[in-house]
Amino acid sequence: MQKILVPVDFSEPSEAALKYALYFAQVIGAEIILLHVACAPLPSATNYHLHIGLLKEEVEKGKAKLEEYINQFSELKYRDGSGKLKVTPVLESEGGIIPSIERISKKYEAFLVVMGTHGMSRAEEILIGSITADSIASEEIPAVLAIPSNAKFEAWQRIVYAADFSEKDKKVIEILLELASYFPKAKVDYLHISNEKAYIEDIDRLHQLKNAFKQTPVSMLDFRFRENDDLDEGIDNYLDNYETSLLVLLTHHRSFFESLLHRSRAKEMSFHTDIPLLVLKTGTTE
Residue 54's domain is classified under what CATH number? Predict the structure, then answer.
């Protein structure tokens, strides 16, 4: 059984991500690994005992909240009728949040980490929390599905893979077609944003990739080409014109996500707040 890791801090964004993950797990038949990392202010030489006391208090709060979640979800069932949804709670209190996510995702062999994002006041813009951004950047954490606070799970229809002719594209498309197969009306759009300089070469690359999937009907997989010197703007314009259930990116290295979004720590992005973002890692597409 596939496993989905969902780190929670009991905030509204993390609860929104958890609800989304639960619905998704019911559809694909996956187990939820529910992780809470109890934290307290870092100790100093004068308040170490205070730190220990606060940490114990946070651990007890975490245990109670996780138990509350488990009771709340106890009646959820898999959509295929195979039984009740399996949810495994995990409470950590040492090593920090990112190292805990790395360790638990490896221990349980999770194929996906689902996390929340935080809304901003400006329209069509979200702020990815630092933990989510650092999880995306970590090479030790598998694919990350970032869920905006106002996103609600609905059967996927259009999955947009914003790509740049990576050698991994064929494998990514295969993964996305497999995910799409769980939803009767879902299709995958391979979207490439080109610029004037690379236009001719990119058209040729697109045709080559399209030929590799010539047996796949356009109702399941379509190849889209748009010209725009601003990659971010080009993707956003596409999302404006085509209702999208999921946006997918592939990271090639730690700096990819940061350079794409033109932010020093990759915490801001201008894509629509209601579209979940799936970030695949090159290491998880082998």
Answer: 3.40.50.620
Residue 234: pLDDT above 80? yes
pLDDT in tens, 23-47: 999 999 999 999 999 876 655 555 6
Cα separation, 133 vs 125, in Å, equals 15
Residue 182: how many CB atoms within 10 A of its CB?
A: 15
Backbone angles phi, psi at 201, to 5 degrees: -65, -40
Q: Of 93, 116, 147, which residue sits at a domain end?
A: 147
The arrangement of strands across the sheet holding 31-37 comes to 87-92, 31-37, 3-7, 112-116, 143-147, 277-281, 246-251, 158-163, 187-194, 221-227
Are 38 and 166 in the same domain? Answer: no
Distance, CA of 142 to CA of 164 (rounded, Å)? 21
Instruction: Assess whether 230 and 180 both reside in one domain.
Output: yes
Residues 122 and 186 in one domain: no
CB neighbourhood size of 128 (10 A): 26
* Number of structural domains the chain divides into: 2
Q: How many residues does the chain have?
A: 286
Predicted structure pTM score: 0.85
Nearest 5°: phi and psi at 103? -65, -45
Q: Which two tokens stand for residue 29?
A: 């038949």
